[in-house]
Amino acid sequence: MNASNLQKKITYKERTISKVGMFNRKHKYLSFLGLAYAFLAIFSYNFVFYFYRNVKRFTCLACIILFFISSSSFSYPAMSLNISFDSDISHDVNVEDADVVISTEELAESDAELAKQVELDSFVLEETQEVVNPDVSEADHLNQENQVSLDDMLNAGIEDNSEIIIEDEQVALGTSDSSEISFSKNDWKIMLVNKQHPIPEDYEFHLGTISGSMKCDERIIQPLLDMMKAARKDGVALIVCSPYRDMDRQTMLFTNKVNKYMDAGMSYMDAYNLASQAVTVPGSSEHQVGLAIDIITEGYSSLDEGFANTAAGKWLAANSYKYGFILRYPAGKEEITSIEFEPWHFRYVGVDAAEVMAQNDMCLEEFWSNFVE
Ligand SMILES: [Zn+2]
């Protein structure tokens, strides 16, 4: 085979050169064209011939690559891996460093005693309304790790609603007859976002500003404020961090996590599967649709399971549903949510749905299979 191929190759090359030589002798002024043709023809011939000779090798390579792509993740992760996760975002969010944590003195005028206990601060409610597609990245949200407590919110002109809010609370607490409420799968509040249900590409929402660069779906700012005020009344300080994240930020968090596991010696596939239990896979995070917020508290700023034992963690677990928020990834439901227990991550679903889930001890996935038409 080699001998005959070699023969062909030389023949082709020689034939091309002699043809070009004749052409160049006839048209001297066009000799550069002949040379270019010769070069291209011989190069292409050798190029194709090279692949032809190595066809088995390249087929094997293609098969290996295909196998790797098809088997690397996108499958349901095994939950039995015995490794502890640290957090959704970087550990130890430092309260002192945050530029938006508001001093409690600003509250002193209204009630010094209350101000001492409570740490809900500032939502600067600028009425900025951006239409957001979560898949469109916004670079200015990157590298922001802020925290917001209630005083900021109260300073921004939301005080007037206080009395109305208290009435709303009573209404919310009073109504619990969920049996007659039906839920539509098209309701934005109960939108199911997880690995199996990524964010629809055409999903759009209005982004409202909580404070500075911290944003979320504008429709959940008022319920969030209501919840933070109610917590303050009970002497619990809630601090919001990391609400809306764009695709770039989510991707960065996820990639960092994968790299960390790979640095520890894991294969890419193992690292991906494990990372997907600790950080939501980009494109399927509720933070990207502005409906999820992470909450910490004064004196405990780590996003880890220990938050569940703080006053804030307990208060949220018991009361958040009254304001339409659910603990999205509860303990004991990891097999269903495929996300580890996250006592700090709260998702707005509306009061009706939150009450149904609280009454039936269901996570959002279970709620969908039982109540959503
Ligand atoms: Zn979160």
Give a brief rundown of this model.
The chain has helices at 2-26, 31-53, 55-71, 112-117, 150-158, 162-174, 221-233, 247-263, 268-278, 311-319, 334-337, 351-360, 364-371; strands at residues 130-132, 147-148, 205-211, 214-217, 239-241, 292-296, 325-327, 345-348.
Protein described:
The protein is α+β, with helices and mostly antiparallel strands and 373 residues long. The chain has two domains: 3-71, no CATH class; 134-245 and 285-371, Muramoyl-pentapeptide Carboxypeptidase, domain 2 (2-Layer Sandwich). Helices cover 44% and strands 8% of the residues. It contains 13 helices and eight strands. The chain has helices at 2-26, 31-53, 55-71, 112-117, 150-158, 162-174, 221-233, 247-263, 268-278, 311-319, 334-337, 351-360, 364-371, and strands at 130-132, 147-148, 205-211, 214-217, 239-241, 292-296, 325-327, 345-348. Strands 2-5-6-8-7 form a five-stranded antiparallel beta sheet. Helix 1 packs antiparallel against helix 2 (31-53) and helix 8 packs across helix 9. The protein starts with a helix and ends with a helix. The model is unreliable at 73-144 and 157-176 (pLDDT under 50). The structure holds zinc ion. The site of zinc ion (ZN) has 5 residues, from strand 6.
Labels describing this entry:
373 residues, alpha+beta, binds zinc ion, Muramoyl-pentapeptide Carboxypeptidase, domain 2, single chain, 2 domains, three-stranded antiparallel β-sheet, 8 strands, five-stranded antiparallel β-sheet, 8% strand
